[in-house]
Amino acid sequence: MKILLVEDEQKLADALARGLSLKGYTVDTIHDGKKALNRISLHRSDYDLVILDLMLPSMDGAEICKTVREWGVTVPILILTARNETDRKVELLLSGADDYLVKPFSFKELAARVHALLRRPTETVPKIISVSNIELNPVERTVKRDGEEIPLTLKEFGLLEYFMRHPNQVVNREDLLTNLWDFNYASFSNVVDVHVKNLRKKLGSGESENPLETVRGIGYRLRG
Fold it and tell me: Cis link prior to 104 (omega < 30° from 0)?
């Protein structure tokens, strides 16, 4: 799951990004309103959630929210605001926000709201994802093959979940970088290959029995 965090307070942004990363999310951080709007307009399909501060340089969060909804962007938006007035909350929801959180807040509450938003809609996010003899539980973050649990790192889990949501499709390295790493990683980095290699080892030792195959010169495919 990939999150765009738009927050101009550097220390808060760093703390939230670090905490969400430890929860297994990939986080891109932007500190300016107009830059955030531009990012969403160009990469609207890259993100599963936008966390948007209300008070930002160059353009406020409410205007960003209203604009992207007018564009037809449906990604969930969680607004961070220092204002607790009822009228303001109603205004934010009417502008297209899915939820809001009043500052100061605990990271535990933020994480719970993020988790709740990413579960919607439930019909498109099944509790258990199954491909062949592999079962993945996105909520409990567990993976089983033939009923036996496979321990994975957070990044390996994210990779497998992405492959399982695109079974039998060739997935290139750029897609994986876009969806599972933040935009500071260079596309020529071999970080994807290293993590995929480790994931393949855990899924099966033999080439013939391994469901995750390399498509030379293109990327990878999880056989269903």
Answer: yes
Task: Give the position of tokens 């009417």.
Answer: 94
Question: 146-170 burial string, b = 16+ CB within 10 Å, else e?
Answer: eeeebebeebbbbbbbbbbbebeee
> In the sheet that 212-215 helps form, which strands lie side by side, from edge to edge?
171-172, 219-222, 212-215
The three-state secondary structure class of 210 is coil
Question: Exposure of 84 by Cβ count < 10 A (0-12 exposed, 13-18 middle, 19+ buried)?
Answer: exposed
CA separation for the pair 49, 52 (Å, rounded): 10
pLDDT in tens, 133-152: 999 987 778 899 988 999 98
| pLDDT tens digits for range 47-93 | 999 999 999 999 999 999 999 998 888 889 999 988 777 777 778 88
pTM over 0.85: no
Question: DSSP assignment of 122-139, as one string?
Answer: GGGS-SSEEETTEEEETT
